[in-house]
Automatic annotation (TrEMBL):
Belongs to the adenylate kinase family. This is Adenylate kinase. One of its GO terms (cellular component) is cytoplasm. One of its GO terms (molecular function) is ATP binding. Transmembrane segments: none annotated. Pathway: Purine metabolism; AMP biosynthesis via salvage pathway; AMP from ADP: step 1/1. Consists of three domains, a large central CORE domain and two small peripheral domains, NMPbind and LID, which undergo movements during catalysis. The LID domain closes over the site of phosphoryl transfer upon ATP binding. Assembling and dissambling the active center during each catalytic cycle provides an effective means to prevent ATP hydrolysis. Some bacteria have evolved a zinc-coordinating structure that stabilizes the LID domain. Zn(2+) binds at C130, C135, C152, C155. Keywords: ATP-binding, Cytoplasm, Kinase, Metal-binding, Nucleotide biosynthesis, Nucleotide-binding, Transferase, Zinc. AMP binds at T31, R36, D57, L58, V59, G85, F86, P87, R88, Q92, R162, R173. InterPro entries: Adenyl_kin_sub (IPR006259), Adenylat/UMP-CMP_kin (IPR000850), Adenylat_kinase_CS (IPR033690), Adenylate_kinase_lid-dom (IPR007862), P-loop_NTPase (IPR027417). The gene is adk. It catalyses: AMP + ATP = 2 ADP. Residues 127-164 form the Adenylate kinase active site lid domain.
Length: 215
């Protein structure tokens, strides 16, 4: 399958993507993970992107599109891919459309995950992520806490609140999403690709996508 997953930060795109990859071997492509990896590695891209990410701002298109073109041509994408958190703006969507045409790739659908703002805010404020780049397990202080506070169950590394998941940064990220990313729904609806799915459960979202694709 070749999908784009839309939805505000904390809507569950990453979880849904991981569940979908198990169906047919499609790979999850998260620009957030790619960028955070570059930050950890202190590459030129990482250094440039870090300031934007910590403030909850969008990383400039000039940094993102080069990453995406390279990634989509890697061998593991030939069997299908799930774009998680990309595109985020209309200009990115327009550039992605041109890129996919250039690469001869046709999307199956665009799934828009619709979750209430108060649910998203609560999820992100209470989320903790393992600092180990080879693990990155995700926990929640309310619904899925670590057995030992602040320590990852899987590898023993610190499980911390990311810099872009403080209350101030989350509020800014959601405002930025509503202003710049939410309009993508109309963009893809005009292309006949959009399917909006209302639900806070990952299983509901996955089942709706499977039904739409006839899986």
């Amino acid at each position: 399958m070749k999908l784009i997953l839309l939805g505000a930060p904390g809507a569950g795109k990453g979880t849904v993507a991981k569940l979908l990859t198990k169906l047919d071997g499609s790979v999850q492509i998260s620009t957030g993970d790619i960028l955070r990896g570059a930050v950890r590695a202190k590459t030129d891209l990482g250094k440039e992107a870090e300031g934007y990410m910590n403030r909850g701002d969008l990383v400039p298109d000039s940094l993102i599109m080069g990453i995406m073109e390279h990634r989509l041509q890697e061998d593991d994408c030939k069997g299908g891919f799930l774009l998680d958190g990309f595109p985020r703006t209309i200009p990115q969507a327009e550039e992605l459309t041109q890129l996919l045409t250039k690469l001869g790739i046709k999307l199956d659908m665009v799934a828009n995950i619709d979750v209430p703002r108060d649910v998203i805010f609560d999820r992100l404020c209470t989320r903790r992520t393992c600092e180990n780049p080879d693990c990155q397990a995700i926990y929640n202080t309310k619904s899925n806490p670590t057995k030992v506070e602040g320590i990852c169950d899987a590898c023993g590394s610190p499980a911390v609140q990311r810099a872009d998941e403080t209350e101030e940064a989350i509020g800014h990220r959601l405002d930025t999403y509503n202003e710049k990313t939410a309009p993508l729904a109309s963009f893809y609806e005009k292309q006949g690709l959009l399917e909006t799915i209302v639900g806070t459960s990952s299983d509901i979202v996955v089942n709706a996508i499977k039904k739409k694709l006839g899986i």
